Amino acid sequence: MEIFKSLAHDEHEQVAFWSDKVAGLRSIIAIHDTTLGPAIGGVRMHPYKSEEDALRDVLLLSKNMTYKSAAAGINLGGGQGVIIGDPVKDKNELVLRSFGRFVESLNGRYITAEDVGTTAEDMEIVRYETQYVTGLSRAVGGGGDPGPVTAIGLVHGLLACVEKVFGKKSLEGFSVAIQGLGSVGYNLAQELFERKCRLLVADVDQAKVKLAEEKFGAERVSPDLIYDVEADIFSPNALGGVINDQTIDRLKVRIVAGAANNQLEDDRHGEVLHQKKILYAPDFVIGAGGLINVVNELEGYQQERAIKQASGIYEILSRVLERSEKENIPPHQAATLLAEERISQVKKFKQRVKEGDGCNYN
After folding, report:
1. Domain 3-64+74-140, CATH
2. Which end of the chain is more exposed for a tag (fewer CB within 10 A), N or C?
3. Which residues are CB-neighbours of 237 under 8 A, at least 6 positions away?
4. Rounded to whole angstroms, how far apart are CA atoms 195 and 208?
5. Domain boundaries, the chain
């Protein structure tokens, strides 16, 4: 793969590579768009099969963050970091410190946070080397685990979905198939259990599944069969690309709505869902609660404020679904248009300010 040739027509503002032989770190940071402000996005640590896979992932995730920020009304751009390595075997203080130096070298253009394979505790080590970090523990003034706030945002997004599809204003009695019981999936299960939903859950970690069975009366489903269950809602909360040619015809649900990033393997899969009359809640809209949580740290973290802002996902997603219906386009296209329109408007405004056109500061 010729990396520079492959990036020649890419829309990202900057893609930076970092190699530290002493720490054993190989990392990439992608900055997609900073029109709305500095780029923000987590750092994912994963044992990618190849450097090309790592590059592909960081490009997709950083772009997703741009749209997530824009759709949520946040004044930040989109970025993402990846660390190539097994978080169980390869993560240590030197790796995290070196990544912090990488972030610091970008002079505030990118603000990092936790993601898959990293934790709030890891971010405290990253903070030794850079000020541009969020996703910190509550002990040091951060927001801690963003999973609970992400789950609350999901619940409010699900309310918008069931209102559109079923005409209901409550989630009581609905069946939800949850894929992935990490922090987001588990907290979502708890929220839905309290709302008297029927839960079907799948995770590669059977201990997490057993806990959900005991705590929430959830029904265990094999990870390979979660696409085949009959339910009202399928909620992907693990890794991306789960809606693809192999899975899409297996779905027996009316709604797909979860917090996993880049759930559609390709945009055309969103069109297929639309044709099948399966409502897809764009992940960068309904899953914005985690971003909202870490952004609040930049202003002095208050959980009540973060929860209130995450609850606003109901209104945002409702607007997306209204536009989808009015223009007869898939919801992910409607959400993309709303995000791009906001970015375009701010870009034009900044250009006018720069040129001094029609601006009066008196």
Report:
1. 3.40.50.10860
2. C
3. 178, 179, 180, 181, 182, 184, 185, 188, 258, 259, 260
4. 20
5. 3-64+74-140, 147-341
Residues 6+ apart with CB under 8 A from 320: 71, 282, 285, 331, 334, 335, 338
Q: What pLDDT digit, counting tens, does each position of 113-159 carry?
A: 999 899 999 999 999 999 999 999 888 889 988 999 999 999 999 99
pLDDT the model gives residue 357: 61
Overall residue count recorded for the chain in this entry: 362
Encode pLDDT of 166-210 as tens digits.
999 999 999 999 999 999 999 999 999 999 999 999 999 999 999
The domains spanning 3-64+74-140 and 147-341 adopt the same CATH topology: yes
pLDDT digits (tens, 9 = 90+) for 69-125: 999 999 999 999 999 999 999 999 999 999 999 999 999 999 999 998 999 999 999
